[in-house]
TrEMBL record:
PANTHER family: INTERLEUKIN-17 RECEPTOR, INTERLEUKIN-17 RECEPTOR C. The lineage of its organism: Eukaryota, Metazoa, Chordata, Craniata, Vertebrata. This is Interleukin-17 receptor C. The keyword DNA-binding does not apply. Its main location: membrane. It is a single-pass type I membrane protein. It is found in: Cell membrane. Coiled coil: none annotated. It comes from Callorhinus ursinus (Northern fur seal). One of its GO terms (cellular component) is plasma membrane. It comes from the Eukaryota. InterPro entries: IL-17_rcpt-like, IL-17_rcpt_C/E_N, SEFIR_dom. Gene3D superfamilies: 3.40.50.11530.
């Protein structure tokens, strides 16, 4: 590398005290090296200062330049006179005058602005007699580094050898004034405002941090331009480069979509996970993607993928780079999950789904190893990791001993291990088959019972009247109320109705049990297009409130024949799921209950007060479209005459014996 004496045309000195400098010809390599101790007073850079200027070759041909001023000061202290000869100062003042002694330094100035990178070497010196430790001795100016509008400029400066940490300065140059980016709905417009005669090149490219740039679109254009991009084409690393079509022209680059939410969303949607046999995987994306990767276990039937401790650490993933999974064996339930730092979006891929088939109903066991060969095992379930030999009410706890035997007998597949932990996948097929066999057996038994009940009731239906079926449900709280219900049932039998009530089926009710009896009667009534009548009393209301608050565990049947208590387990789901309208009717007796006492859940169906609302009640019990509205009033009077004495007697003397009625009874 040749040297030349004197001041370069790129280097200038502002007025200072005894400073001189010259520039080495050509660029040098930027090798800062390690910091060393100063052998005495030395010159070091203390501050960088920049200024934007134009370097014009002709009146209309100018380039943008960055002028850099390097401020210098003395670092270190003078030593004893015996060592002064090491620093270029005469040890004997009589042999060399102080004005002829100098402090010298080689100062490196580094400049980076994509796509330009330069490194120059300056030699500066100052008279030792004018140098004071810690004081500034002036500055030198480098004029200048060419740069493009909108570029990011980075500067470094240090000495060779390096006596202190290098100076650095980063500066964003102003953007090109005639290139603007604007949005219009889903479109983005690139507006280039130049003269009609100017020729320039325009390039769109992906600026990869982890690799070279990738061109996307390029064109040579003339004059003003308005280029439209669709919002789906935007990515954070999509950049625009513009330059005049002239020799050695400076190119201006802009990356305006780095923080654009649409570009961030497009990048995440374009990202793909793929498997690279035998144990590799890769995240492919057009740009660098800030995301964390974790290995997770995806159980069949949906639900979140459960993160696994090892083998992947939750660190930012390098895109388009092959990564290895430290697994012993592959499994279709093992998935890689990416979590984006932008809005916490997730990308999940079960890597071996194509080669190993669908997800398996296997149980993942997590083994933790302690000192002295102690180990513990737990099963990964949606609720967490359940110890195998625990009393928890989960599938893994119920099958804990069997799973432990499967592991010890070698039936489980080891997926991963280290010194402290291991992962095992144990098949559950045989346990699932046993469970389904029991389910099918129970269903077959229930179907047989229902079929026998159907055959038994078929003969009764043929013999009964052809009117609409009405199943009366009530709470048997005392004999007086039972007599009142019996009177109502007897009166309704005089109408074209087939009345079913447990008062007339005690033998059948005792043989089958309240729940089975009600289930069969409700099924038959609704299948025939009938209606279930809920007769509310204070006891029935209290029983409903118990069910609504505490569930089935809080409510037991009040007696061996109390079908109402048994029926709530089937009635309540119909109301809770909106299936009650058209199938249920409510009623209560005047003087025994207020309308507000009926639970709100049951008011989704008509609720009548008897006998005051008997016409409306009987009209609701009629089959839809029945052409007999004119006789409802007369029939209501008949039913009221039968019902009123029993109601009066109950109100005056509660607990009186009931009367079952004289209608045809089932099962007695």
């Amino acid at each position: 590398m040749a040297r030349f004496d004197g001041i370069s045309s790129d280097l200038s000195l502002p007025p200072s005290q005894g400073l001189s400098c010259h520039l080495w010809d050509g660029d040098v390599l930027c090798l800062p090296g390690s910091i060393v101790s100063a052998p005495g007073p030395v010159l070091v850079p203390t501050r960088l200062q920049t200024e934007l200027v134009l370097r014009c070759h002709q009146e209309t041909d100018c380039d943008l330049c960055v002028r850099v001023a390097i401020h210098l000061a003395v670092h270190g202290h003078w030593e004893e006179p015996k060592d002064e000869d090491k620093f270029g100062i005469a040890a004997d003042p009589e042999l060399e005058e102080p004005r002829n002694a100098f402090l010298q330094a080689q100062v490196v100035l580094s400049f980076q602005a994509y796509p330009t990178a330069r490194c120059v070497l300056l030699e500066v010196q100052v008279r030792a007699a004018l140098a004071r430790p810690g004081q500034s001795v002036g500055s030198v100016v480098f004029d200048c580094f060419e740069a493009a509008l909108g570029a990011e400029v980075r500067l470094w400066s240090y000495t060779q050898p390096r006596y202190q940490k290098e100076l650095n300065l980063t500066q964003q140059l102003p953007a090109l004034p005639w290139l603007s980016v604007s949005a219009d709905g889903d479109d983005v417009h690139l507006v280039l405002d130049v003269s009609e005669e100017q020729h320039f090149g325009l390039s769109l490219y992906w600026n990869h941090v982890q690799g070279p740039t990738k061109p996307w679109w390029h064109s040579n254009l003339t004059g003003p331009q308005n280029i439209t991009l669709n919002h789906t084409d935007l990515f954070p690393c999509l950049c625009i480069q513009v330059w005049p079509l002239e020799p050695d022209s400076v190119r201006t680059s802009l990356c305006p979509f780095r923080e654009d939410p649409r570009a961030q969303g497009n990048l995440w949607r374009a990202a793909r996970l793929r498997l690279l046999p035998p144990r590799g995987w890769q995240l492919n994306a057009p740009c660098s993607l800030l995301a964390e990767a974790t290995l997770c276990w995806q159980a069949p039937g949906g639900g979140p993928c459960q993160s696994l401790v090892p083998p992947l650490s939750r660190t930012n993933v390098t895109v388009n780079k092959t990564l290895e999974l430290p697994l012993l064996n592959a499994h279709p339930n093992l998935c890689v999950q990416q979590v984006s730092s932008w809005e916490k979006l997730q990308l999940q891929e079960c890597l071996w789904a194509d080669s190993l088939g669908a997800l398996k109903d296997d149980m993942l066991l997590v083994e933790t190893r302690g000192p002295q060969d102690n180990r513990s095992l737990c099963a990964l379930e949606p609720s967490g990791c359940t110890p195998l030999l625990s009393r928890a009410s989960t599938r893994a706890a119920h099958l804990g001993e069997q799973l432990l035997q499967d592991l010890q007998s070698g039936q489980c597949l080891q997926l991963w291990e280290d010194d402290l932990r291991a992962l095992w996948a144990c098949p559950m097929d045989k346990y699932v088959h046993q469970r389904w066999a029991l389910v099918w057996l129970a269903c077959l038994l229930l179907a047989s019972v229902l079929f026998l009940l159907f055959l038994f009731k078929k003969d009764h239906v043929k013999a009964a009247a052809k009117g609409r079926a009405a199943l009366l449900l009530y709470s048997a709280e005392d004999s007086g109320f039972e007599r009142l219900v019996g009177a109502l049932a007897s009166a309704l039998c005089q109408l074209p109705l087939r009345v079913v009530v447990d008062l007339w089926s005690r033998r059948e009710l005792s043989a089958q049990g309240p729940l089975a009896w009600f289930h069969a009667q409700r099924h038959q009534t609704l299948q025939d297009g009938g209606v279930v009548v809920l007769l509310f009393s204070p006891g029935a209301v209290a029983l409903c409130h118990e069910w609504l608050q505490d569930g089935a565990a809080a409510s037991a049947p009040h007696g061996p024949h109390d079908a109402f208590a048994a029926s709530l387990s089937c009635v309540l789901p119909d109301f809770l799921q909106g299936r009650a309208p058209g199938r249920y009717v409510g009623a209560y007796f005047d003087g025994l209950l207020h309308s507000e006492a009926v639970p709100a859940l049951f008011r989704s169906v008509p609720v009548f007060s008897l006998p005051s609302q008997l016409p409306d009640f009987l009209g609701t019990l009629q089959r839809p479209g029945s052409p007999r509205p004119g006789r409802l009033g007369e029939r209501a009077k008949q039913v009221s005459r039968v019902l009123q004495p029993s109601l009066d007697q109950l109100l005056q003397a509660p607990g009186a014996p009931g009367y079952p009625g004289d209608c045809t009874r089932d099962g007695t």
